[in-house]
Amino acid sequence: MNRLVVVSNRLADPRKASAGGLAVALGEALNSTGGLWFGWSGRIIEGGTAGEGDLHVQQAGRVTLATVDIGRDDHDAYYSVYSNGVLWPVFHYRLDLARFESGAIAGYRRVNQLFARRLQPLLKPGDAIWIHDYHLIPLAAELRAMGCGNPIGFFLHIPLPPPPIFATIPEHDWLMRSLFACDLVGFQSRQDLAHFSAYVVTEAGGRALGDGRFEAFGRTLRAGAFPIGIDVDEFARLAAGREARETFATMREQYARRSLLVGVDRLDYSKGLPQRIKAFRELLVNYPENRDSATLIQIVSPSRESVDAYADILRELEGLCGAVNGDFGSLDWMPVRYIHRTVARKRLPGLYRAARVGLITPLRDGMNLVAKEYVVAQDSDDPGVLVLSRFAGAAEQLHEALLVNPYDIRGSAEAIQQALRMPLAERRARHAALLARIREHDVHRWCGDFLGALAGDGPAAGNA
User: I need a labelling partner for 78 at 20 to 30 A (CA). Which of 191, 291, 324, 385 fits?
Assistant: First the structure.
């Protein structure tokens, strides 16, 4: 295989223990080809010149890490205002939270042009370029404008909305035209791929040619669904580690008389957190046998809390948790343990393993790897039950979970009750099927399927 060049907004040293499963998988592919990983350095230069930034290059074993600084004005327009103020809410179906500010698109394009200018001299003939996520949708087009003829793939880690929602973005035509500068575009789910196909035909006046090929804007590309997985063996090693075992033992000791439910999420309006707390309250109201016997541990990692929408959901969440505890709690039982901080990743497998029910109920999510981690962490002899939103990309693969509509509070409460009362034989059967599929479609399979398709060695659609 020719050298792999990965481009993402942020990057990680794949040699470090703190690197996640995605970084490890990309690192393996990069290391095998002596590859290059390119992205933003994380440095914001106050008063920096618009569209300019210094390049930093270092070696991480056989992998070259190349990063670019970004000026304050460019960062605010590219990252805060456009990527996270327009694309993130619209792609998660939250048009009410999108800020369609004139001028932000110019900063978004400036940073993508900066990336292209700094990356182009580092490229070699035959390099395969793999661009990641919504921050860098125009990058392939900017590289093509500079004469880049290398094969280019793009993977969208978040959902792609249907055409009527995507078309609310004033620059939607330019964004889709930019994607057609790629040779291969990958999505998390078959639904996202269907939305892409519908846009090409109804909005761009293009054609679906079959076999994952699409024609529009005078170009032809291949597109497919490549559902991302986790590094199962790496997470299993975490589960066997000291921190995870200590956490499991502590949870079992402290909650010996009670059934644990767990939710672990980043603070975001896409995660369905208020709806989850309301469903747990409904459980306590409609199934009083769970009072004094069921405890929900809800961990919410801080995220973008200077943004008004995040501050609003934080206040709502704190109010809901406080109300449940005030209305139902007793001297020796707190129904909801709400933790607003990041819990060390090494401890999470122990928490997952101790929980009878895993609640993964986003309103919309590209994949949601916490659902897969919860399954892998379980004791196969006495596993917990995954309650999963049908609007998470993971729902297309994890059929044996209890799938719920998070907007349906009563229905979600009934699913939680079903999970708490599920017989052991059924829990084992569901868990075995889920675990087998997660192992089959792990992060290494995802990486191999996409790169194989980019090289023309595999199908465009790597569906589970």
Answer: 191
